[in-house]
Amino acid sequence: MRTIQAEINTNGVVTLLEPIKIGKRSRAKVIVYDDDPKQQGGEGNAERLLELMRAHRLPDDAKVSDKEMERQIEEARSSWD
Predict the structure, then answer these.
(1) Number of structural domains in the chain
(2) Containing domain of residue 28, as a range?
């Protein structure tokens, strides 16, 4: 499954905004967004997300050291066996 951007005009005609090569007839799913991303501050919402993350930082007592993070990762890996 791949995701590509497209626009739909008021007559329902879909125009792909990215090139795609398809070797056979394929099905597609179309999601219609209510908002125009250009009206939300440009491509995507990266700046808004960064502002949100800066305003709601993780408390110091919730942060773990690099060693502790590695230990947790190793513990999770080992539990898969």
Answers:
(1) 1
(2) 6-76
